[in-house]
């Protein structure tokens, strides 16, 4: 069944949209990430203009992360105090990100930057996750009990000025690294159309030493708030959020996420992380190849300025 | 003045045989984009008649008809990638103002048998006509990038030439079918008909039609432009609600 998308200005198959939303939602439920880094390239590949794809996926990420964030909130596994700092910094960052997005688009270098950004970011995070996961799988095989790193161990940057006590995370650290982390996630998220959960979770664990039971919930809340702000920002600046496209993806995504979450119970943590690392690396390699191999057609085109008539 | 008089006299001598006019009509003047819009085919039909006021009773062919259909104009850019330090980067570009977002050339036979290339180029009929779109780019690039832009538009299905697109039902009655794809850009369209006789244009006629979103699609399109903040807020509210509902329904 074809459905006309009023902002993208083309017809797409409803079942295809709900289907890819569901498939990516399944993966995001399984791994606890937003899935924007898979959905945005998929939509661009299906013919949706890249600006519409990036802007509409932000709406879908909000929906996909909301149900997760709510259930963590009910269990008391969100550090609201820490979230406020992260969210405010990331909203500032997303203003910068949306501005850079516009400049790069005018220069004609947006696609290059998106490819390079995905390649470096996903390549780096994927490699880190892979080595960590493989190491813990090997240790488990060898019968060594893995002792989790103590959350209270401090890094040098925890001692910077403006220290704040985060009661729920049992942390007394400087807000400078917290704000910096939020700001960077905001810039990257707005530029690449991703929630940044897969960067935030390791950063909270390894850099800020947030206890494990607080990490996922806090990260999900941060993704919901930041992506909500980015959706509004894209709607105001580029007017390229397609609410029908986003809604089709949301419906598929929320249903898929529930199945993904229950499937996740049958896999061990490090196996899950290894699979996610594989997925992240595959997307990174895909972008890397597109940069290096000669394009089938060196010419490309784009419409400049705001859209035409309604 | 004398030359003008001479010309008028000459025209009066040959006049009666060469005074045709086109009477034509598009099957629908408004194409409505609804939620299930999957493209639409319009029919432009017309007939060749003696000019009003002339004493001629009938027209004599053989005639050829060429119809060009032009969609709303946009500012479009063509870019070229080159290999720099091992990676492929957009390095050159040419911007075209008033470049049609949709262009079809329909004719009853091959264009080069209807008339000569000069007459075609003068009226900007062919797909890769240099008169399509204005650019500030210097000469060789302007031509090269335009040709590539046209190829890209053809691949996208928005530019098309069909040399069997006009069908004559009799010596003077013809029709042309214009297929609008599902991603036809909304806006004003102009179907311009050229009537050729012995390689020269003897009559022209323009018919306009509009492609516009209606109902809910139109409402959404207007809302996103005129109330972008409210539109964004509604989008976020919808996302939060869908996420919450999903969580409740599945009792995660």
Number of E-type strands of chain A: 5
* CATH domain class of the largest domain in chain B: Mainly Beta
Distance between the termini of chain B: 92 Å
Amount of helix of chain A:
55-70%
Q: Tally the beta strands of chain B.
A: 13
Going by helix content, strand content and strand pairing, the class of chain A is mainly alpha
Largest sheet of chain A: 2 strands, antiparallel
The number of helical elements of chain B comes to 6
Beta strand % of chain B = 35-45%
Q: Taking Cα atoms only, what radius of gyration of chain A do you get, to the nearest Å?
A: 20 Å
Write down the oligomeric state. Answer: heterodimer
Question: Which outline of chain B best applies?
Answer: flat
Regions with little confidence, pLDDT below 50 for 5+ residues of chain B = 1-16
What best-fitting shape of chain A do the alpha-carbon axes yield? globular
Query: What's the architecture of the largest domain in chain B in CATH terms?
Result: Sandwich
Question: How would you characterize this protein structure?
Answer:
The complex is a heterodimer of chains A (310) and B (252). Chain A has 310 residues and is mainly alpha-helical. Chain A has one domain. Chain A is built from 10 helices and 5 strands. Chain A has helices at residues 14-31, 36-45, 50-74, 80-107, 110-142, 175-192, 197-207, 212-237, 243-264, 269-292; strands at 2-5, 10-13, 163-166, 171-174, 299-304. In chain A, the strands form 2 sheets. Chain A has a two-stranded antiparallel ribbon. A two-stranded antiparallel sheet of chain A has the order 3-4. In chain A, a hairpin with a 4-residue loop joins strand 1 and strand 2 (10-13). In chain A, helix 2 runs antiparallel to helix 3, helix 5 packs antiparallel against helix 10 and helix 7 (197-207) runs antiparallel to helix 8. Chain B has 252 residues and is an alpha+beta fold. Chain B folds into 2 domains: 2-213, Immunoglobulin-like (Sandwich); 214-252, no CATH class. Chain B is built from 6 helices and 13 strands. In chain B, the strands form 3 sheets. Chain B has a 6-stranded mixed sheet with strand order 2-13-12-4-7-9. In chain B, strands 1-3-11-10 form a 4-stranded antiparallel sheet, with no helix packed on it. Chain B has a 3-stranded antiparallel sheet with strand order 5-6-8, covered by helices on one side. In chain B, strand 10 (166-168) and strand 11 (173-180) form a beta hairpin. The longest helix of chain B has 23 residues, at 228-250. Chain B is flat. Strand 5 (299-304) of chain A pairs antiparallel with strand 5 of chain B.
């Amino acid at each position: 069944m074809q459905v006309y998308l009023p902002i993208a200005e083309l017809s797409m198959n409803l079942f295809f949209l709900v289907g890819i939303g569901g498939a990516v939602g399944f993966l995001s439920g399984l791994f606890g990430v937003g899935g924007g880094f898979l959905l945005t390239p998929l939509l661009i590949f299906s013919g949706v203009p890249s600006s519409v794809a990036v802007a509409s996926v932000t709406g879908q990420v909000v929906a996909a992360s909301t149900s997760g964030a709510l259930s963590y909130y009910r269990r008391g596994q969100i550090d609201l105090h820490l979230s406020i700092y992260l969210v405010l910094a990331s909203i500032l960052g997303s203003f910068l990100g949306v501005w850079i997005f516009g400049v790069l688009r005018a220069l004609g270098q947006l696609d290059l930057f998106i490819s390079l950004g995905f390649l470096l970011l996903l390549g780096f995070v994927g490699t880190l996750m892979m080595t960590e996961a493989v190491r813990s799988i090997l240790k488990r095989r060898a019968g060594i009990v893995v002792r989790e790193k103590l959350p209270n161990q401090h890094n040098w940057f925890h001692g910077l000025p403006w220290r704040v006590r985060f009661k729920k995370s049992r942390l007394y650290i400087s807000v400078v690294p917290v704000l910096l982390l939020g700001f960077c996630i905001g810039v990257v998220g707005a530029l690449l159309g991703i929630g940044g959960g897969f960067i935030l979770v390791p950063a909270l664990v390894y850099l800020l030493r947030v206890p494990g039971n607080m990490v996922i919930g806090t990260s999900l809340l941060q993704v919901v708030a930041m992506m909500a702000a980015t959706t509004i920002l894209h709607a105001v600046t580029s007017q390229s959020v397609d609410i029908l496209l986003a809604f089709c993806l949301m419906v598929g995504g929320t249903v898929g996420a529930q199945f993904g979450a229950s499937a996740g119970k049958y896999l061990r943590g490090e196996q899950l992380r290894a699979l996610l690392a594989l997925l992240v690396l595959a997307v990174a390699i895909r972008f890397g190849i597109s940069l290096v191999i000669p394009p089938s057609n060196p010419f490309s085109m784009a419409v400049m300025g705001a859209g035409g008539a309604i | 003045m004398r030359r003008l008089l001479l010309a008028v006299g000459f025209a009066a001598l040959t006049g009666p045989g060469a005074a045709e006019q086109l009477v034509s009509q598009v099957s629908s003047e408004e194409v409505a984009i609804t939620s299930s819009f999957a493209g639409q085919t319009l029919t432009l039909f017309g007939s060749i008649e003696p000019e009003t006021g002339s004493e001629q009773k009938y027209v004599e062919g053989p005639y050829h008809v060429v119809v060009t259909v032009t969609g709303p104009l946009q500012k479009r850019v063509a870019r070229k990638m080159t290999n720099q330090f091992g990676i492929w980067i957009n390095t050159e570009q040419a911007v075209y103002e008033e470049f049609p977002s949709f262009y079809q050339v329909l004719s009853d036979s091959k264009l080069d048998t209807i008339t000569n290339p000069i007459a075609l180029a003068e009226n900007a009929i062919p797909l890769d006509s240099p008169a399509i779109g204005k650019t500030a780019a210097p000469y060789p690039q302007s031509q090269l990038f335009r040709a590539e832009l046209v190829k890209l538009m053809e691949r996208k299905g928005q530019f098309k030439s069909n040399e069997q697109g006009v069908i004559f039902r009799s010596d003077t009655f013809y029709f042309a079918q214009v297929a609008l794809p599902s991603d036809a850009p909304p806006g004003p369209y102009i179907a311009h008909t050229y009537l050729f006789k012995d390689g020269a244009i003897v009559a022209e006629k323009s018919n306009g039609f509009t492609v516009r979103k209606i109902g809910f699609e139109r409402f959404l399109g207007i809302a996103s432009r005129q109330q972008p903040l409210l539109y964004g807020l509604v989008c976020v509210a919808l996302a939060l609600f869908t996420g919450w509902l999903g969580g409740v329904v599945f009792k995660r």
